[in-house]
Each structure stands twice: as structure tokens, then as C-alpha cells.
Design a protein that fits this description.
By secondary structure, the chain is an alpha+beta fold. It contains 25 helices and 23 strands. Helix content is 51%, strand content 18%. Helix 15 packs antiparallel against helix 21.
Amino acid sequence: MLKHNLKLFFRNIKRSKGTFLINTIGLGVGIASFLVLSIYLYNDLTYNHFNENLANIYRIQEVYEDGTSTATKGLLLPQMQQEIPEIVNGTRIFDWDGYRLSHGDNAFMENVFYVDHGFFSVFSFPFKEGNAQNVLDEKYTAVISKAFAKKYFGATSALGKQLQIGFDNTFLTVNGVVDIPENSSVKFDIVTSYESGETISPWIKEVHDWYNTFSETYVLLQEGTSPSVVENKLKSIVKANFLPVGENTTKIGLLPFSEYHAAEESNQTLIIILAIIALGVIGIAIVNFINLTVVNALSRTREIGVKKVHGASKKQVVQQIMIESFAIGFIALLLGIFILSTFILPAFNVLFETHLILQSFNPYFLGLLLFGIWGFVGVCSSIVPSLLWSRSKLVENLQGKYTSKSKLGLSKYSSVIIQFVIAIILISGTILVRKQIDFMLDKNPKFDSENVIVAQTDFWKHSDLDIASGKLDVIAKELAKSPYVASVNFTGSIPGDYDENYNTFYPMGESAVADISLRKSYVGKDYFKTLGIDVLSGHGFNKEPTALKNTVVLNQTAMDQLGYTEADGQILVEGREGGTQYRVVGVIDDFSYQGVQSAIQPLAHFFVEQENLMNWDYLTVRSEKLATLQVIDLIKEKWQELFPGQTLDYFFADEKLNVYYDEYRRVNTLITWFSILAVVLSCMGLFALASYTMARRTKEIGIRKVNGATITQILSLLNKDFVKWVALAFAIATPISWYAMNKWLEGFAYKTNIDWQGFVFAGLIVMAITLLTVSWQSVKAAVANPVESLRDE
């Protein structure tokens, strides 16, 4: 019987190639789209799960009234390990240092992580070469990532290879290579021990005290230890060591590392949106598959009637449709996996800069998921026609009629309404996301984003920094002489690249607050003039350097919080009693130094005069209007004269700032993809439903035409129901979409408004596509010869 049913299945495919292709491709694309989103969601929800001791790993954080900070005091961990026996192990991570590393002809600027010896006991990174046991015990040993090893050593083994630090006679020896999982919160290229770091860069030891917060701290607790026990013991450590000693009331909290990604890194609103899209897309695809299968099955009623005449039982009829449905579902599943692996997943990885693969899933979970989709599709797509075929009357089957009880009501339309709802939500979401991105890009950054060129000094490329500094000075002076150049400056910060460097300052004299936390930046003379940032009061470091010692320029937000109305005469003391005093000499406008999705922070710029210009990260040059190309050519010319053979890395002042918006561009592209997919799949389902409807009303249309109905009247009659369902879907989708978009916009400090035009436009798009799809079938029915439809009567 199975062999016979399979023969019938392949025979039916040959007879209905179009329906088969639409069915399998539609479901296959739906499955592929669902799987790619599922892989991304699974990857996000299982972040850090590769760590064997995940349940007992905690990240230390300082808790304040207005938030938390995961940067901790440098001496906190050693004291915790000494006083708290519940701590099994721990590690600090210091990632503020970088230098030139080279091996043979390969040389790059690298960010080097310094960690404690417990690093590889706390975290369970899989080793490809070497092992975690005592891997960093020896001074000047390092562990590198697999990608780092490939960059420097190619396909050869990295163990025992040496990396030269700068141009000195100091080397790091590779003791291990790890394969860092995609979903790890802790990622690095190279790590070495604190002992090595403090020798290479002695300043690191100086900032590891009871005041500065430059390191991240992780602890591994004994099994069954409550974090509250450790938090209580931390109170005495804070009181005895944090400055001012005996008076500091900083609260230290333990954040479970299993919750860290969701709490600090992941965009949970985006995760929820993607989960809804994934379920919506697979839902549309499955409903369409079921509808098309049912319509195709109902068109074969004569075949079933003949089978019944020849003695086929209800069981045999049900078996046939079950086998066919499961077979088509299986083919669609295989097609979906092929489309996923060949097209969708590679495109997704390029878009989101990930390295996801189908094997990212737990194999048991993947098998259960695929089997569940196949089983659900097979059962649901076969149960309706099975019931209709088994219960239908033989006479109706032989006449090719559907069962008289099969009426097309709201329940039949509900699947299409849900599809329309999803499509309208996705389209309106796409419109709003695009609008918010345009709003962020179009917002006035309050600096010159068109005429400022930024060149990287690339100090790490030079063995003699004094000679390189002299050449850089020549370039700057030559540029300043050019009639095309308005201003030249050296700086350590540019918009989009401001360090997360904060400190507490205490105002002398009257102010609105006792202290203020300022984000710090160090710049050279004429920074604000060169960037085109408006100075609202005082001056912007445009005087002689001797007059700028221990001076600071604040942004308007800092002034507002301090309650200052003007800069002149204000004094700020940094850090603690007796700390360095800074004169406020200027106030600048609140320009965009970071993405506008974040609120402007109180910002302080400090004047610094560097003896060696290579200590600066950037040379900024502001051109006269319409002279940008000439200035770029001039910079290139001077660079090649003084640094022959060396590549000049330059960009416009707003380029790093625009990187802040890349994630939102990706989200917009993704939602656009799935909006189009939802519309296409909805059209397929609509086509099936329209075919079913027209087939049921063939005789009704014939009678109306005989009685004088025009083609326009027939089309209006046939299309009005579908228009009604689109209108209902619009009414359901609009408040859902508005709520979802409003929640999404809550994450932005500066945001666009949600207007009605986007929802109306989305509704009109769905309405237009619906009418085009339905009219394809309606026109065929309306122009058909009524004699053909009434012949049986």
C-alpha cells in the first residue's frame, strides 16, 4: 500500500507541478528563515554557556543610585581572595594597553589583555594548542586566539613561537591557542599575566590602587554559596580600604555571569522582536502550506470518488493524504536546510558580522526542532482533507463537488488575517526603524562633519618616535600654511572615539552639586576650532600653551549640572581632597561625541602639550569650504614625502560616529527582508484561498452573469470580502505595531515621533498586493463563459 501511495504521490506531482513547486519552495523558504533567526536567538540565549562553572561565576560591580559600573578597583580582587574563603578563584581583566607585535614580516597594533593566573580556571575556553594548566605561570608567556594565530603564523603551529613587543628586545612566547566561542562575553586576541604587563608597562601597577577603576573583576564561588554572603563580607573591605578610608559607602554587588549578557550586552527588545518575527514567518509558511495542500486535495474529489467506488476504505483514503503531506513536508524541510546553508545563513553572517552555522545548535535540540516542524506540518496539512474526503458523499465526490458542510467562514479566513497582521506590523516597523536611523543621521552633530579630515598618527609603525614626531611636526606646519586649510590640531579623541574614562570632581565655591562625575578627554591646542565646535563662553584652548596649564573646558550639560552660568573663575578639584585643581576656561556646545541613541554626558576636555607628537592618536585638519579634496591630496603628498612607503589612514570626522548606527542599519535591513518575505508568503496563501473561493462560487458567478451582472460588478463582489479582511487586519496590527515601536524607541535618548502615515502606508501596500493577487483569480472567474459553469445543471 505504501508503494502504491508513493506512486500516486509522484504521479500527482507531475500533474500539478506548479502547485508542488509553490508549496515546497514557500515552506522551504519559511523554514530556512525561521532557522536562521532561531540560530541567532539560540546563540544569544546560550551566551557563555560553554563555561563549565557558569552557575558559580560572578562579575563584580559597583552599585550607585543611578546605575552600576563593572569597572573595579585594582586591588579589590587580591583582598577578596585573602579575606573571603568562599571565593575559589578569580581574575581581573585589564584591557587598556596596546602595542606593536610582530613575528617575521607580520606586524600589527594589538590590544593586549592582562589577566590573573586564575583566568583559565574561571573561564573554560577550549584549547586548540596547549592546555589551561599553569599556562601563564611563566613571565612573558601568552595565550592567543585561533584567529590571532592564523594572522601571525598561518597554518603552522603557534606553540613556542615568539612575538616581539614594539622594536625592543622583549618577546612574548605563545603557550596556548584557544578557540573562543562566538557567544562569549569575554573575547580577546592575546592575554598575558599581570606580572608581564607590569614589567612591560610600569604605569599599570601605579593605577592598580584603591582609587582607580581600570579593571574588570570575576570570581568563582564555592558550589552552593549565596552571592549575598560575599556581598556582606565586601562591606568591611570597602570600609577598610576604599578612599576616603572609613567613610566610603560604595556598594559592591555580584552579577551572575549567566545573566551578564542579557543584562549588559544584549538588546532584549531586539531579541523579542526577532523571536516574534521567527514565529510569524514560520506560522505564515505553515498556514500557507496547509491551505495550498487543502486546496489541491479538494481539487481531487473525483479521484477519491473513483477510489471509493473501487472499494477504498476511509483508512486508506486518510493514509494516502497523510503520506503525501508528510512526503511534501520532508522535501520542503530538506529544501529549507539547503537554502539556509547555501544562501540565507551566509548572507546573515555578512550582515551581522557573525560566524553562525547550523551546528551552532545543540544537536539534540536541532533534531527535535526539525522533527517537530516536519511532524506538525504533516499532521496539520493532512487532517483537514482527510476528514473532508472520508466524510464526503460518494455522489458528490464523483461530481467533483466539495462537501456541502464545507462553508467558507471567518475560521477559514483567520489564517489569512493573521498573515496580513504580521505583514503590516513588519512593513510599518521597517518604515519606523528607517525613520529613526535617518533621524539619528540627520541630527545636527554640532561639529563640522563635512570639512574635517582625520589622519591616524600610527605611532606603532615607527622604531624612532623622536624622528617620527619631527616629521609629523613638519607635516602639521606645512598644512597650516596652505590657503586650503583653516586649522590643524593634534588630539587623543575624536567624535565616535572617546575613552570610557571617568573621574569625580569637586567644585570649589558655590555649585548645585557637591561633586560631579565627568567623562575625560585630552586634546591639544585649537581642538574645538578645528572640529568646528561652538565655544559658548570663555575660550577653547586657543591661547599660548603656558596659559593653558591645568585648564579644562566643559560641555553645556556639565555646566547645567554644576549650576554654572559662565566659565570664568570656576575651579574643579579632581579625585580627592588635595587633588589637582583645574580652571574652567571655556564652555562648549553639547556636540555628538557618541551616538545620539545615548544621552549627552557631562564632558571635560583637558589641555595637554605633548613633547612627542607621536603620543597623540590623531592629526585633525579642517579645510576651507569646498577645498576638502585639495586638502586630502595635500596630506597624502606631505605624508609620502616624509613617510615614504607608509600607508596613510584617514577619514572624515563623522565616520567613527556613524559606526554607532551600524546595528540599527542591520536591523532595518533584516526587518525589510522579512517584510518582503511575509508579503510574498501571504500572497501565496491568498492565492490558494482565492482559488478555493472562486472554485466554490463558479456556478454563482455563472448565474449572476446570465442575469446581467457586469465584469466590474463580479470583480467587486469577489474582492470585497478580501478587502474587509485586510481592513480588519489593519485594525488589529496598528495598535500592536505602535506599542512595539514605542517600546523599541524607549532605548533612545533622542528619538523620532511615531506618526500615522507609516501605518497607513503599510496598510495600503498590503491592500494593493491583496487586490492584485486576488484579482488574478477574480478576473479569470469573471470573464469565464457562464455556459461552462452551468452545464452540469
